[in-house]
Design brief:
This protein is mostly helical. Helix content is 65%, strand content 2%. A two-stranded antiparallel sheet has the order 1-2. A hairpin with a 2-residue loop joins β1 (117-118) and β2 (121-122). α1 (3-25) packs across α6 and α5 crosses α6. The model is unreliable at 142-159 (pLDDT under 50).
Length: 182
């Protein structure tokens, strides 16, 4: 095992321990000592990888949001039909949550908490990159036919994508169930 691989495994162990504890005890109620004990590392080792508890929280959100954005980019590259695009986006987000239950629990608990910022992460800003990706995709597609949109008209908003989905459903387009996904 190389030093770089071992380093990344230690950092991953710290992140996983922190996510689990933050999700089950809360960010404020979790101490650095508890994280180091759960990860099986020393405090200096944690501080080697992460500046402080806030830095650890930022790294957690960066890691999981990058996974989400990566899945979102895959869907955006694959789908041209707005209905299929929306279905892919929703299932992609649900898959990420299912694969990372502790992070999903943490994110939702913090997102709906009265605090706008937790652990140095502005939770109102966190989802914006994903929404920007969706808006950019909508800008380059017109009615699911892959044509360029008139730039003067501006990019369609997220509500427009949902309205398009609802229109497809109203026209009798079948719903896609979990067992029908690719």
């Amino acid at each position: 095992m190389t030093v770089a691989t071992e380093d990344s495994l230690i950092a991953q162990r710290i992140l996983e321990a922190a996510v689990h504890l933050f999700a089950h005890k809360g960010y404020d109620a979790t101490s650095i000592r508890e994280i180091t004990e759960a990860a099986g590392v020393t405090k200096p080792m944690l501080y080697y990888y992460f500046e402080n508890k806030e830095g650890l929280c930022r790294a957690i959100f960066a890691r999981f949001l990058e996974q989400h954005h990566s899945r979102l980019r895959e869907v955006l590259e694959r789908e041209t039909d707005p209905f299929e695009l929306l279905v892919g986006v929703v299932w992609g987000a649900l898959d990420i949550c299912r694969e990372n239950m502790d992070f999903a629990r943490l994110f939702l608990a913090l997102y709906f908490s009265p605090e706008a910022q937790v652990g140095g992460v502005n939770l109102c800003e966190a989802p914006k990159e994903g929404l920007t990706l969706l808006e950019e995709a909508g800008h380059h597609r017109s009615e699911g036919r892959g044509r360029e949109v008139n730039a003067a008209a501006g990019p369609p908003n997220r509500r427009g994508l949902v309205d398009r989905f609802r229109g497809e459903e109203a026209r009798g387009r079948p719903r896609i169930e979990a067992d029908q996904r690719n």
